[in-house]
Amino acid sequence: MQRHWRDDLERMIALDLRARGIRDDRLLEAFRAVPRHEFVPYEHRLNAYADAPLPIGNGQTISQPYIVALMTAALAVSKGARVLEIGTGSGYQTAILGELGARVWTIERDASLQCDAKALLHGLGYRNINYRCADGTMGWPEAAPFDHILATGSLPEAPAPLLAQLRDGGSFVGSVGRRTIQEMVRIVYHPQQMTVETLCACRFVPLVGFNGWTH
Ligand code: SAH
User: Fold this and answer.
1) Using one digit for the tens of pLDDT, what is the confidence trace for 139-154?
2) Measured between alpha carbons, how far is 75 from 134 in angstroms, rounded to an integer?
3) Domain ranges of the chain
4) Could you tell me the distance, in angstroms and rounded to a whole number, from the CA of residue 67 to the centre of ligand 1?
5) Which residues, in sequence order, are bridge partners of residue 207?
6) pLDDT in tens, 86-111
7) 174 CA to middle of ligand 1, Å?
8) Does 155 sit in the ligand 1 pocket, CB within 6 Å?
9) Pocket test residue of 152, 155, 182 for ligand 1, highest count of atoms within 8 A of CB
10) What is the DSSP letter of 175?
């Protein structure tokens, strides 16, 4: 990686992640390994390491690094974990999961975003990733059960059919609430009972689909 990208990346890790409470070294190493500037459109490259969401085309955004870190930390992904990601977008979050050694099933509704993300992730050498262009709010039943489900867009609520694709004790992290503002929640799934924890307020682009928003 070129020196100026490396400097920007180290600043992001120190000031936007570590100083704000992301202390897991394994996770910080994952951020260190992923060239975020490759995941943003060329015209936004100079801001790639700023702690902000950026447009990636088709009205969608790449999530801000701190939020990606917070969500990933909340899942506590161990090596070999089976993770369903809903909303591939740029593929940046997918790459972080890949760096952590997860086996990823990632679904994107927009064919052109999916195509770009797949080519980029493949080119960067990520292999433990399964791609699907579909409505991710339905999950990926044939690959269930998952250890974790990560929704990278907002939902009106955590859909029961999706949670049922988790193993007993598996966790869901996503942004749930109203269209304009949501709460990031972590749900630990047990068939008879679930625990729900609110992590922070947030604002994500919507997941449009059968168990999501209508438009
Ligand atoms: N993790 C991504 C975030 C992308 S934003 C990143 O950091 O780049 C959310 C993504 O969800 C968008 O790309 C959008 O096209 C996609 N999306 C919206 N509804 C969806 C659905 N029902 N199933 C799968 N993907 C969906």
Assistant:
1) 999 999 999 999 999 9
2) 23
3) 53-202
4) 15
5) none
6) 999 999 999 999 999 999 999 999 99
7) 12
8) no
9) 152
10) E
- Band of pLDDT at residue 1, cut at 50, 70 and 90: confident
Q: Is 156 helix (H, G, I), strand (E, B) or coil?
A: coil
Give catalytic status of residue 112 as yes or no: no
- The single-letter code of the amino acid at 91 is G
Rounded Cα distance, 186 and 167, in Å: 15
152, 149, 169: which is closest to 161 by C-alpha?
149
Q: Among 31, 108, 184, say which to mutate for ligand 1: greatest number of ligand atoms within 8 Å of CB.
A: 108
38 CB less than 6 Å from ligand 1?
no
Kindly give the distance from the C-alpha atom of residue 118 to the centroid of ligand 1, in angstroms, as a whole number.
14
- CATH of segment(s) 53-202: 3.40.50.150
- Look up residue 71 and give its DSSP letter: H
Residue that is written with structure tokens 């500037």 in the block: 37
Rounded Cα distance between 17 and 15, Å, is: 6
What's this model's pTM, rounded to 2 decimal places?
Answer: 0.98
Structure tokens at 165: 């694709």
Q: What is the DSSP letter of 192?
A: S
d(CA 2, CA 156): 42
> Residue range 147-171: average pLDDT?
97
Quick count: other Cβ atoms within 10 Å of Cβ 161?
Answer: 12
Rounded-to-integer distance, Cα 190 and Cα 138, Å: 19
Rounded-to-integer distance, Cα 37 and Cα 40, Å: 6
Q: Give the residues across from 61 on adjacent strands.
A: 55
pLDDT at 3 over 90: no
